[in-house]
Amino acid sequence: MTPDRELLAGNERFAAAFPHGALDRRPRRGVVVVTCMDARMEPMEILGIDAGDVNVLRNAGAIVTDDVLRSLAVSHALLGTQSAFVIGHTECGLHGATNDDVSGGLGLSTEVDFLPFDDLEESVRSSVRCIEESELLPASFTAAGFVYDVRTGQLRSL
Ligand SMILES: [Zn+2]
To answer: How many domains does the chain have?
Structure first.
């Protein structure tokens, strides 16, 4: 079976015993998790929570971009969230990479900034500051930074 068909078969099994049909769109915990797209990270498992508990925003590097701020603002204004957890992680693909590394992988010469970083903790702290300083969010909306260790499963507060 091709990978695509395997994934669709997986959804058929999931939907056959679907447990989340009565959930409200407002996250029960009032929290937004901002984290990386890394396949080793499953935010719900990492935090011991379930569907309906938090909003999750993911991108390459757990970077707070303009679009992440847009989503945080929507989450706060329409879904009632009050805080964000920014979770970077060890062995991130963007850690120590360069824009040329990504461009080269695409076979392109491009001026796009893929937002690579050299200091993991500073990257997370910078994202936390972006949330704290955003004019889209009220001062009451809080943000905290963490590093997830992909080898131990432990979350470390910054
Ligand atoms: Zn990553």
So the answer is: 1
pLDDT digits over 87-119, tens only? 999 999 999 999 999 998 898 877 899 999 999
Distance 22 CA to ligand 1 centre (A): 32
DSSP state of 14: H
- Which two structure tokens, joined as six digits, stand for 148? 């997830």
Distance 17 CA to ligand 1 centre (A): 32
CB atoms within 5 A of ion ligand 1 belong to 36, 38, 92
Q: Supply the pTM of this predicted model.
A: 0.94
Q: Decide if 3 is inside a domain.
A: no
28 near 53, Cβ under 8 Å? yes
- Residues 33-49: pLDDT tens digits? 999 999 999 999 999 99
Residue 85 included in any domain? yes
- The CATH number that applies at residue 46 is 3.40.1050.10
